[in-house]
Amino acid sequence: MSQQIENILHENRRFSPSDAFRRASRMGDEAEYQAMYQCSIDDPDGFWGEVARELPWIRPFERVLDWSKAPVASWFDGGQLNASAVCLDQHADGERANKVAIHWEGEPGDARSFTYRELRMEVARFANVLKSRGIGKGDRVAIYMPMIPELAMAVLACARIGAIHSVVFGGFSAQALRDRIEDTGCNAVICADGGWRRGSVLPLKQEVDKSLEGIDHVHTVLVVRRTENEVEWNSERDVWLHEALESVSDSCVPEAMESEDVLFLLYTSGSTGKPKGIMHTTGGYMVGAYLSTRMVFDLQEDDVYWCTADVGWITGHSYIIYGPLANGATIVMYEGAPNAPAEDRFWDICERLGVTVFYTAPTAIRAFMKWGDEHVQKHDLSKLRLLGTVGEPINPEAWTWYHRVVGGERCPIVDTWWQTETGGIMLTPLPGCTDTKPGSATRPFFGVDACILNEEGQVLGPNQGGLLALRKPWPSMLRGIWGDEQRFKDTYWSKWPDGWTYFAGDGARQDEDGYFWVLGRVDDVINVSGHRLSTMEVESSLVAHEAVVEAAVVGRPDDLTGEAIVAFVTTLTGIDGNDDVRAALIEHVAEQIGKLARPQEIRFTDALPKTRSGKIMRRLLRDVAAGRESNQDMSTIEDAGVLERLRLTDGQK
Ligand code: 7RM
Predict the structure, then answer these.
(1) I want to staple 91 with a disulfide (CB 3.0 to 4.6 A). Which of 21, 328, 343, 398 is the partner?
(2) Would you state the pLDDT for residue 35?
(3) What pLDDT shows up at residue 114?
């Protein structure tokens, strides 16, 4: 960590919003911001109560926060609301009825738009199809789809009838989907026949079929027709959406949900064991998504807002669907790859649709940088006024490129730090009043009490690297891990003895201005292109292969993807670690988890470096993978020769 701290310390440029931006923004005055932030910390009930009352509650709440059962929080008790009504009905029945909610574009170039009134109708019909299959309040529904409008509709249709959605990213394999389907105990899956990705079809229905072999709790697979590829059909279980839609009504009264009813589960990787089903509930999540979208992206009525994430990740949940739609924004949704058919696809979309606010990931920015300025400069991006990033630390070089080439030096950049677990943005500039520094997520959002602690729980001073912690509950915080309350407590609330300080799993420091610099994970989580993977998951996949005895997986810094996966593998006696085995292992991991988890490099070794008590020394392997000298404590190593031999093996891919 100290090396990273060194690197970042040299970055001390500051960028201020222009006076014009400041004046037109929702929060352009530092003193007003300070007062509002202070109020959110000193009087959270007053602050969040006022924000929450801006949402259309079906029944008003009686209490803002109950933290007496910490670390399980209860927000807006007594209140009832429906997330799909927050996103749709309040606009469809009001002045935004004919405002565009979604501008969608498919990879092949087809396009569809929906006004708020149209979207509400589509969601109501979708919801009625779910009801006709006996799906209702509290049931879990897995969603495995490409980025098409029906994905947003599926999510909102579940919310409308009170079913708990669990979106699984379309890049995950059948095996990964199966693990999640089993853990949720869902009774329905919504998918598409396929999706377009760089000109070919991702066969999603086929993956669903594979994932359901031997599972008996899924009675319905609802299939959207998208790519028209051949699919197998189980007529008792499978239903075409377009056929089912023919016989349903186009209105559906939203279910009155208790504030603390679960809205969705989203699986995420941790340092140990299988992925965790992070639980988010209705009232607090919606309040958090609503306010953060409005303030961080400075939403104005005529904005055209584009977050390029996939809905399969939390960023897509909070900042494509729930937050922007709760605010009545016009959003852009795109199905395919950023370089299909050419490297300027994103900028082409920005120009044609007049995108004003653009939110993407550092890994994408680095790819654009590599592809060259000309792809950006070909297009008129003068409507852009605000840029954002999320998913991993952004290197100052990528930040300044984004600022100069995409933002024409006029757009503030919001570097937003948050997690699946936090539900919404936690550290961020407010674009009209925060001076930014490239690489820093700057300051805490309203109500966020962030600090840097050491292992003992002491607050560290300026520029001391430590652990990022949150000391106050916030409305969109996770409420638990599906089916495993103990793991919820152990993972997030047991780092320090009080039992109510949230441990984020990230290392960070605060500079002399109080700005936060997030340095990356301190646990065994690897962040590849902003996707969280645990070393454990990849290791267990590798050792499940017949040729493998033992595997250790680490992250190595990568210019493009932030981190890349490097695996150290020992093979069974008699099996030679050659290129064929290497290729087979990579394919095996892709099948078990998904392509995103494929090791970039596999190094065969006769043994792994271990402590005398038998623990694999992953930190040491991280240095080996990165090709750097190690200053790790070597006193506990069992066989120092292993390390020497490892350093000598080549790093063939
Ligand atoms: C939103 C999301 C969470 C992890 C988190 C960090 C890393 C995310 C930033 C960042 C530095 C950022 N959810 N992370 N944003 N690191 N600066 N602006 O990504 O659950 O998938 O991942 O991502 O390590 O703990 S996530």
Answers:
(1) 328
(2) 98
(3) 99
Distance CA 148, CA 126 (A): 14
Which residues surround ligand 1 with Cβ inside 6 Å? Answer: 268, 313-315, 390-393, 415-420, 441, 504-506, 518, 520-521, 527, 530, 532
**Distance of CA 591 to CAs 198, 211, 564, Å?**
20, 11, 18
pTM value is 0.92
The amino acid at residue 103 is H
Phi, psi angle pair for 132, to nearest 5°: -65, -20
Residue 82 main-chain phi, psi, to 5 deg: -130, 125
Residue nearest to atom 2 of ligand 1 (CA): 419
C-alpha radius of gyration, the chain, whole number: 24
Tell me which DSSP letter residue 438 carries: T
CA distances from 398 to 246, 369, 411, 557, 562 (A): 49, 7, 15, 15, 11
Angle subtended at Cα 632 by Cα 586 and Cα 646, rounded to the nearest 5 degrees: 40
Bridge partner residues of 100 (DSSP): 115
DSSP 521: E
Protein residue whose Cα sits closest to atom 18 of ligand 1:
417
User: Ligand 1 pocket: which of 1, 8, 390, 413 to mutate (most atoms <8 Å of CB)?
Assistant: 390
Backbone angles phi and psi of 357, in degrees to 5: -125, 130
Pairwise CA distance, residues 429 & 414, whole Å: 6
Domains of the chain: 108-255 (3.40.50.980), 525-647 (3.30.300.30)
Q: How many CB atoms lie within 10 A of CB 584?
A: 13
Q: What angle do CA 392, 553, 580 make, to 5 degrees?
A: 120
Which residue puts its alpha carbon closest to atom 7 of ligand 1?
392
Q: Whole-angstrom Cα distance, residue 377 to residue 372?
A: 9
- Reference 173, options 275, 272, 242; nearest CA is 275
Residues 6+ apart with CB under 8 A from 108: 196
- Specify the residue with its C-alpha closest to ligand 1, atom 5: 419
Q: What is the pLDDT of residue 532?
A: 86
Residue 629 has what pLDDT?
A: 81
CA distance 442 to 435: 8
CB count within 10 Å of CB 271 equals 14
Q: Is the dihedral of CA 425, 176, 623, 580 positive or negative?
A: negative
Is there a contact between 469 and 506 (Cβ–Cβ < 8 Å)?
no
Which atom of ligand 1 is closest in space to residue 315's alpha carbon? 1
d(CA 571, CA 584): 13
Tell me the pairing of strands 220-224 and 188-192. Answer: parallel
CA of 460 to the centre of ligand 1 (A): 22
Q: What is the DSSP string of 440-456?
A: --BSBPTT--EEEE-TT
pLDDT < 50 positions in the chain: 1-8, 651-653
Ligand 1 centroid to residue 573 C-alpha, Å: 41
Q: Closest ligand 1 atom to the C-alpha of 532?
A: 21
Ligand 1 centroid – CA 1 distance (Å): 17
Q: How many angstroms separate the alpha carbon of residue 426 from the centre of ligand 1? A: 10
Atom 13 in ligand 1: which residue has the minimum CA distance? 419
Atom 16 of ligand 1, residue of closest alpha carbon:
392
Mutate to test the pocket of ligand 1, among 318, 360, 476, 527 (most ligand atoms within 8 A of CB): 527
Query: For residue 148, how far is its CA from the centre of ligand 1 (angstroms)?
Result: 25
Tokens describing residue 364: 């994408």
